[in-house]
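Hi C.,

You asked whether I'd gotten around to modeling the 193-residue construct. I have! Everything is below, sequence then structure, no commentary in between.
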Amino acid sequence: MRCNHFLRQACLAVLAATLNGCAVALMGGAATGAAAAHDTRTTGTIVEDEAIELKASKAFFENKAVNDQAHINVTSYNNIVLVTGETPTADLHDQVINIVKNIPKVRKVYDELAIAAPSSLVSRSSDTVLTGKVKAQIFGMKDFDPTRVKVVTERGIVYLMGLISKTDGDRVTDVARQVGGVQKVVKLFEYTG
């Protein structure tokens, strides 16, 4: 069977996301240890960030309305949480944000939820591909440790998180803006020194 170019990219994105999940599951705690070697966060903060994401996922799964009707992504970096995705109603939106705000250790919540129908698999796959392209460009930067930046893409909007200098934050943002398909770049950095 022949695939068109877009379908092939979507299939590759889904495969990459699936394989990435398998690798994380297989490596378990080793992934945290490897990340901690380059991360500016403390090991305790890295573990807290993972716990925040897991607690949010569990709470969303247990909330039937959110689980059945919404598409939510929660990303925690240095106990600052980015909430992206879609909820079909303002009421569900508020439920999601309140759930996240009430998780212990959360210092701040960036609410980037859209009130809309949940995005399609094709849209999510496109975002996964775009995240990969942005990460590849950041990895190509000279004199910069790319493991210090978290890249999240939702509906073509790229969100950048990390603990870095303002100069490096501006450099990373400029690189991300140059990637084809990026609709907008949102900086959510915490600046150091």
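If it helps when you're writing up: Confidence is low (pLDDT under 50) at residues 1-35.

Thanks,
B.
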